[in-house]
Amino acid sequence: MRETPATPAPTIFVNDTTLRDGEQTPGVAFTLAEKLAIAEALAEAGVPEIEAGTPAMGEEEIEALRAIASRGLGLRVLAWCRMGKADIDASRRAGVGAVNLSIPASDRLLSVKLGLDRAEALERVRRYVPMALDAGFEVAVGAEDASRADPDHLLRLAEAAAEAGAFRLRLADTVGALDPFRTYDLVAPIARSSGLAIEFHGHDDYGLATANTLAAVRAGATHVSVTVGALGERAGNACLAEVAAALESLMGAATGLDLEKLPALAERVARASGRAVPEGKAIVGRDVFAHESGIHVAGLLADPETYRGADPRLFGRRHRIVIGKHSGAKALAHALGERGVELAAPTAARLVTLVRRKATRLKRSLTVDEVVRLHDEACAGLQAR
Fold this sequence. Notes:
The protein has 385 residues and is α/β, with parallel strands linked by helices. Helix content is 44%, strand content 13%. The chain folds into 2 domains: 13-273, Aldolase class I (TIM Barrel, Alpha-Beta Barrel), CATH 3.20.20; 290-383, no CATH class. The chain has 14 helices and 10 strands. The chain has an 8-stranded parallel barrel, surrounded by 9 helices. A two-stranded parallel ribbon has the order 9-10. α2 (59-69) packs across α3 (85-94), α6 (151-164) crosses α7 (180-193) and α8 (209-218) runs parallel beside α9 (240-249). The chain starts with 12 loop residues before the first strand and ends with a helix.
């Protein structure tokens, strides 16, 4: 009997916008050297595309874009542009190979920002996408504030972008107003009816950017816009490490990323941005594979799968047992065993009490040296009885 061939994993393309939207985080400003180092680290991690800046910001930004594009990093270097000739001309000076031509999609932003109606917006797409193509660019179209746009207008925008020659449409949840269910409903009809690749760009105002991005992929998006460490305006963007890990491990998709490089990448961007990686940040935080609870530690020591969700080995990491207020005898025996000290049954209960008191007083976990000293104290107390 013939075996049915396994269905190949769908490929999802990551577009990292740390150097553009990520740098729009309040107070964050990268030097040229930092931008180059981050771009190189993204390339080493296997990121296929970066949105590296906004040429309309001026000559320094143009020079930075040119420096990144000239490095030969093996990824697509894209510039974010408004839908107009001046930005296209600035991108030509920047030496990038691709542009994201963005235009508001919602009536509110069209009216307030540009004084345009929907028909005029579509006409701009028909005018400037071919202009950018003639200038030698690969062209993506960005639908700003798509989450508050009329669905019929988004469909017409997708049709106009495809007819004009764009290769992709970005649906941006610019103000972070979506939830995963509404994201699916937004993306699915456009992905079904459009011949364009669909990218989703989520903001984290309600803490849902990663969930919304995954919902967009479920609905048919093939490209995701992310930043390292979830940097970005206000609450930030969807997090590269979270999205990549979830796509690979939970959704069975292929991203082409080297997941083991993500923790070091997060630290590099944290140093450049001045925004430390939170200790509990999913995938890359210091403590996300650390375990203190006595019940959890006992289970892990017996079988790592008992309390394992994400496998730390995928990210070049490992489980770490922490000694603190919630530690039990098995965790203490394990810690002492690393120093060649055996925890005798009569001493265990006393040691657990001493550890809990000290950890509560210090409001932190304890080092193995401190546990050894408390073990000696517990032994001495029992001998004095």
